[in-house]
Amino acid sequence: MNREIAVPMTVELDRDALIASLYEREGVALVRLARLFTDDRAAAEDLVQEAFIRLHRNAHRIEDQEKAAAYMRSIVLNLARDHNRRGLMSLRHQDSLLPGGEVPLPEDRIVRTEDQIEVVEALRDLPGRQRDCLVLRFYLDLSETEIAETIGISKNSVKTHCRRGMAALKRRLGDLQ
What is the reported pTM? Predict the structure, then answer.
């Protein structure tokens, strides 16, 4: 009797379902997160796309699907750091027109108040962990536990980085009232 061994296809389907679900739930927030670090919508979208590709390739390593979002945020943060480390251009260094003479979309021309610009610049000057913790906490509204999972540090370290980051921002900015 010739028996065929059935190979379950659920692994691939589960991986695809995980990625699709994660994209629906977290995609927009991940682009916003990447954009804070790159200041360029197109680059942020590219970084998030690359992060989803990397997650798909390594989805078999995720034992707890509840931690997939934290893993994804971690990938985006690392890609954004690499992007900035390579010294790639941001919008503030580019001409006002996009390649081909296209006019930027309105969301690419966010009008910021002087105070907002100062806060973003001060955030960018913070040490990496402090900046990451503050952005994840106050921009994405993540809990300390979620931040710890995303960055791969303890919850107490998250508290310390947030406290030190806030103190540094207060020293630099004073009261912006």
Answer: 0.66
